[in-house]
Amino acid sequence: MSESVVRPAQTLVRVILRVMVLALFALLVGFLLFVRSVEHAERPVPVPAEGLVVLTGGADRIHDALQLLEQGKGKRLLISGVNIHSTMEDFRRRWPGRDRLFECCVDLDYQARNTYGNAIESARWAHRQGFRSVILVTASYHLPRAMLEFGHAMPDIAVHGSPVVPEASRLHRWWEDPALARLMVLEFFKYWGVSIRLALGFSGG
């Protein structure tokens, strides 16, 4: 192979390697910024909204959402992504002393099976209720991705995030827990994937 052919090939390889290194560096920086935002997620007192939506996945989430409903932060609460075998009575037993709330102001969504589905079903619920604003309650590491999905599914409704940071998660020392570290990496790539999908104009599923 002549030198005139080898040199351009070597140059192309070097350019590809540099691009790969820069891409990996950008991913690392993005991940560290993502983790930092999750670690330092504050729990401000949410401004009142018309509706409340909580995504299943942890008892702390529903506990916090019920507290917000009791405090008058919303008129009605949707628990999205409920197991098909769970009933309203199950929720009453799990969180006793709130029978009045469950009777008047709590709805269950059995259709959603992922965050995209949560957003679609919550948008339908909010529109049926005539709500123009909702508070979204979910885990702090899940909230950035959920906010993207909800903002896309209900662009005409103001969505305010309320992060749940359970102490048991030990988010401030996530690297010491392999399971939590995997969760953070997976959640970052899911967030990144949703960002790209929405930027390209594709719907989820």
Describe this entry's structure for a reader.
The protein is an alpha/beta fold. The chain has helices spanning 3-39, 59-70, 88-94, 99-105, 115-129, 143-153, 178-199, and strands spanning 51-55, 76-80, 106-109, 133-139, 158-164. It has a single domain (51-199), classed as Rossmann fold (3-Layer(aba) Sandwich), CATH 3.40.50. A five-stranded parallel sheet has the order 3-2-1-4-5, with helices on both faces. It is elongated, with a radius of gyration of 21 Å.
Identify the notable features of this structure and list them briefly:
alpha/beta; Rossmann fold; 5 strands; elongated
What's the gist of this structure?
The chain is an alpha/beta fold and 205 residues long. The protein has seven helices and five strands; from the N terminus they run αβαβααβαβαβα. It has a five-stranded parallel beta sheet with strand order 3-2-1-4-5, with helices on both faces.
